[in-house]
Amino acid sequence: MSMRFEPFSEFDRITQELLTQRGARPIPVDAYLRDDELKVHLDLPGVDPGSIELTVEKDALTVRATRAWTRAEHDEIQMMERPEGEFSRQLILGDSLDREHITATYEDGVLTVTVPVAETAKPRRVEVSRGGVVLGDVTAASVAA
User: What is the pTM of this model?
Assistant: First the structure.
């Protein structure tokens, strides 16, 4: 087996571990709004779905997961670059999101968290009248403008 020699790769790994909080590595995230939902994709390749912990406390959504590799006693490690241990990420949820109806799925190494927009945050129609005569409906968003 041929291997590329990188004398400083272990220093890079140690430095990264020291810079991360409590040894937990950050999880890469994509987040976007689609219709009336916030979608958050978190990369967790190779993680046992049973190790994923998703908690919501006040306005903080916290994701924790663990990836481990069980080595046999006779294994001779030639290269070890894939990070192991605890991974975590905390996201702050805005007031316009419904924390009571969060759902999550894990597929192909990606955890997808769906947070609906709260009903009170959705645009609604407001009746406008002048001198007792209804002029028409306008959305709450256009009244604020």
Answer: 0.68
